[in-house]
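Notes, Module 5: Reading structure tokens.

Key idea: the token line is not a picture. It is a compressed description, and you learn to read it the same way you learned to read a sequence, by spotting repeated patterns. We will look at two proteins. The first is printed below with its tokens.
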Amino acid sequence: MFQGLLIEKDEAGYRTSLQSIDETLLPQTDVSVDVQYSTLNYKDALAITGKSPVVRQFPLIPGIDLIGTVTRSDCSHFSVGDTVLLNGFGVGEVHSGGLAQKANLNSDWLIKLPSGFSPRQAMAIGTAGYTAMLCVMALEKHGVTPEHGPVLVTGGNGGVGSFAISLLASLGYTVVASTGRVDQADYLKKLGATEIIDRAELSEPGRPLGKERWAGAVDSVGSHTLANVCATTRYGGCVAACGLAQGYDLPATVMPFILRGVTLAGVDSVMRPLADREQAWQRLAEVLDVSLLDDIVQEITLAEAIPAAEKLLAGQIRGRVVVNTNK
């Protein structure tokens, strides 16, 4: 038996609770892991609360991130005692995930702990930091350099936004942060933002084309915000889109793309090939200022994860939440 969050759905309804879980509930895979840390992401919060149909198999342990120690390996890639990391691959959605003390996983989903990070630091980064790095890499791939002008980051106080600001600033970009919590401007400036704008400037229906403002953008918000970001991106710029905090719709026109040559680059972190994951984590080790993690991260227990999920969806949590599964 081990402790973990369990999502159930039956005649009594949809519910998430902290339980003692029998190991027989875990799926049959080629690797078993004692989980040290997991995280609480936006998708995890949706799964825990049931406010979006994220979970498609019941009962299920949520948690799209985890890091832990291999206790059983039936593959050649990993040995007992290895510290391994997982982000995505449907874990926490259709396969039991990291918000528990144990997990059974497919070896094809795992990478070894990147050098330069402790297990806690790797989870402090988690899917949010890894996704932010993929977004930065997308901007670089499409030729957006610091010399081209400022880069906008929407959802600046969120996990992806916080890391995107820090990474871009470390690489020499001028960063503009959009947030609904302008009272936390000092936090965003400490991460590296040079200008803070209220999300209200971008969140309402806008014009098909606006004044050219940014050379590129990282957007985790979607909906009207993403449409307005595209409409105000400079000629030849690129917008890396990775989230839908405002909504999954895109009420935009083709004008930014055919009149200004703007590129809208979709960034998926869930099913990304392992080679891309390893490259992103290597770049994180090279670029990220780990001294900023203490400002970005708060640590909670498994028992605290359920109420924290409600707070995250309500926009009451800044940065990243690391879950210590053994407290």
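Here is the second protein, with the sequence above and the tokens below, as before.
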Amino acid sequence: MSRFTEPLQVGQGYERKALAELWGLGGFQALGRGVFTPRGERQIFLFVTRQREGWMTPYNNFLDGDLLFWDGEKGHGSDQRIIDASVNGEEIHTFYRDNRSTPFIYHGRIVMLRCNRYTEKPSEFVFNVVTLTPEFPAEDVLQLSEEPADYAVITEAGLNSIDRVAPTKRRGIAQRLFRGNLLRLWQGSCAVTRVQEPRVLRSGHIKPWANSTPQEKVDHFNGLLLIPNLDALFNEGLITFRDEGKIIISNKWEAEDKRRMNITPDLRLHTVHSESAQYLEYHRDVRFKG
């Protein structure tokens, strides 16, 4: 607790100007960046906006349950400090908003789970929002953050290490990170309709989890982000997709139901990833009820 966190309330909205006054800053310019590190304090504050204006630097930021997915600074100036925060005894706190017209909501302390570092683009971070999950002890989160495996494409040894570190009730973290990678891959929108409301988007495997190798289980190219009706139809094998993205509709269900659900031959994946071709082929050959 410090003079910066003591007056804050989790779940309350704050504007940068109000925070500057609350914290006794000379102005709110210091809060204009995505990262604020108050001098003399062992704290880091992230200001995260999900939807950014077209003229601004594009970032892929979103909050999904108790996981925060955040693209670091373009210049990478704070990357190492954030990565070393837990080791150095520093706390990271976050303010999050959907767009620039809404205030930042204070979500409290977060702990880094994963960082994929890049030089040519912002590094990709994943955090656990500690305040929302008191049943998930911070030391367990820290253990997970120290594992070297990359959750984008994980090795068998890496997957086994997750099983060792996390008790059964917490193993879902790998699947939640898989969902986060799908949100990144599909730009936070349904792979077909481009619907962007995260509460209705379903993350599913193309080649089912039960039939996948450890690497395939968490390979984000083995996944689709779909609205519920399309997700259900895909899982039941009533629709599938060609390698170039065009939909294939099964003839083994009623035409009237297809009309009611607005399933038409012109539907297609809005983005085609060549790395997904092997999984789509499996779905066509094994899962699809042609």
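Summary for the second protein:
- The first strand starts at residue 13 and ends at 14.
- The chain has two domains: 1-146, 188-290.
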